[in-house]
Amino acid sequence: MTGPAPTPRIRTERLVLRTSEARDRDAFIELFASPEVTAYTGGPQPRADLERTVAEIPGRRPRLFVAERDGAMIGMVSLDQRDAERHGPARPDIGQVELGYLFLPHAWGHGYAAEACAAVLDWYAATHPGEPVALCTQIANTRALRLATKLGFHEVERFEAYGAAQWLGVRPSATPSP
To answer: Terminal CA-to-CA distance of the chain, rounded, Å?
Structure first.
């Protein structure tokens, strides 16, 4: 088995999806320090800690895409291996890769997350035919649940983890983006 494919550069109608660069560091810090952005992912991290620990070029790993609009990072999309140690069910029928995304609050409500996630899922389906993708979110995160449905994910299970009800969905590789 080979490792994950490198992160390609993808152009959508309004975004560029690309590998991270040093100029993205401040936006990464803002993402992880934002109480709004991290409300359903464990909460914000102290900005001082992030300033000290975030790499000069953050997020530099395969299948992590910076979502850029008008030359600036507005969010990120990732396809990560599902961690066997992670809370929640280990189900072979949902695949081994999980979609994750975070966008800065000023980018919310414009359809950028849907556009970016659909493009990344289409790329993955083309490069990994037949492989499903999982998505997990808190049930309380109604915006994420709406986006999951729009992207073609369907619920396979609900469970408790991290002190909250969680939703686990799967998107078959062949599902076309909206």
So the answer is: 31
In whole angstroms, give the CA distance from residue 92 to residue 151: 21
Angle, alpha carbons 56-80-30 (nearest 5°): 40
Q: Which position has the token pair 């999980």?
A: 98
pTM of the entire predicted model: 0.91
Q: How far apart (Å, rounded) are the C-alpha atoms in residues 123 and 142?
A: 26
Give the span between the Cα atoms of 161 and 83, in whole angstroms.
14
d(Cα 80, Cα 82) in Å, to the nearest integer?
A: 6
Tally: H helices and E strands in the chain: 4, 8
To 10 degrees, the CA torsion angle through 54, 58, 61, 66?
140
3-state helix, strand, coil in the chain (%, to 5): 30, 30, 45
- pLDDT, tens only, 71-117: 999 999 999 987 655 555 666 667 789 999 999 999 999 999 999 99
Provide the sign of the torsion angle of the four alpha carbons 108, 83, 90, 19, taken in this order. positive
Which residues lie below 8 Å from residue 110, measured CB to CB, with a gap of 6+?
none
